[in-house]
Description:
Elements: H1 3-33, H2 36-46, H3 56-84, H4 86-105, H5 110-122, H6 126-136, H7 142-170, H8 173-176, H9 186-193, H10 197-217, H11 224-230, H12 264-292, H13 302-331, H14 333-345, H15 353-359, H16 364-394, H17 402-431, H18 444-463
Helix pairs in contact: 1-6, 1-7, 1-10, 2-3, 2-12, 3-4, 3-5, 3-17, 4-5, 4-6, 4-10, 6-7, 6-17, 7-13, 7-16, 12-16, 12-17, 12-18, 13-14, 13-16, 14-16, 14-18, 15-16, 17-18
Amino acid sequence: MSQRDEAVDYQQSYTAAVITLCLCSLANAFVIINVFPYSGFMVLSLLPGTTPETVGSSAGILASSFMAGRFITAYGWGQVADGMGRVFVLKCSLFLSALFSILFGTSSSYTIAIFWRLCLGMSNAITSISKTLASEIGQGDEEKEKQAMGLVVGMRSWGFLIGPAIGGLLADPVKHYPSCFLNDSLLTNVFLRFPYLLPNLVVATISLLAALLVWVTIPETLERNVIREENSSGSDDEIPTNEKKPLLLKADLDVKEVPIWSRQRTRRHMVFNWIFSFVVTVIDDGFPLFCISTIGGLGYDESAIGQVLSMAGLIFAIGQYATYSMMVHHLGLYPSITVGCALGLTPAALISLAVCWHRMGAPKWETMVYLSMVLGLSKIMACACFTSLAIATNQTVSQGQRAKMNGLLLVGSSITKGLGPIFAGYLVSFSFSENALLVIPKYGSFVIFGVVGFMGLLVTLLATRLE
């Protein structure tokens, strides 16, 4: 085979791998965040005695149970990926995510719902493995690494916008789309009994499709001699016939590795990532809870929330990759992190202005368009920050430590992302409570997003000291 043919084959393999990783990232985002727009309504139906103003804390606990589960197993999945291979772990995670998503959609009590979300988190290593593979499929080409990471992380952020839209639009379908269901039909009875099953069925389908594409298109990137060391029954010449040829050659194996947490630069990047993830999660979970409230919020239902997030997703889809590429090309990695952080977090303070328009009698569509623009544009910048940060963090360790580092990163982010919904839930409940000290419930939204905007300023200050 000529060098030109080899180059064409490699480019085709690289393109197919990136597309598959993007689908994996999208599926993972759906798994994590599709519950946010309907978690409050789900708790209202499963937990007697709750109201739209008091549901925040219980909904936050339900959403954060996923991160609690991921915290338990994240580092272990990283060790498995460094021993048995990245692709093996990715396929397992996608299959289990599909299974537990369906079970979560059939929850009949608040406790059972928390249990299945916990299992979803424990079985999920998609985030860390996808980022590890995105760094490795470029065979050391920095431009391809940036391109792959930009697309994969960007697709994850896209999923973080589309996921809530799917969750909001498909939750309780019999209630929102009665004309689509026949009386007393099997399908109608199923969705009446399990009103939040449909969005989870969609998530499960996407996860299974991603698992199939991983099996077909992504070769193992872990060095062959590392895999052989784990296989005591094989010799150096015994490579299974069904084993795909790795894209990467041996690298960094002869270098004595410094423990990950002992690297000051790596540690600094990881801590910043955790703090940034916390604030982003507070925004993602706090926004639907704010929309639900009838006292200090907008009184929206699941469908209206889904429409807002769908429009925000469209804005994000149009501008995300072009904005990220332009920022990294003209500014570089670390300035992109700072600018993306500043413009991705602090604009959350503008969300509360929608309440003013709502109370002045502005048409509902104007308020929804305004919210979509604020969310969509801020997500574009937050994604640019997160993508640049992922590349910068991977560059602080050798290839042989990337999966473990991303596993450790996932442990910390599971904690902060688990605390995010709880913090957002209690912040919303406190701000809209009649008994809150020095807070008038009618103006609680200004407290909620004022706090979030201030946290964004503090995180931006940390970003300036990252390099």
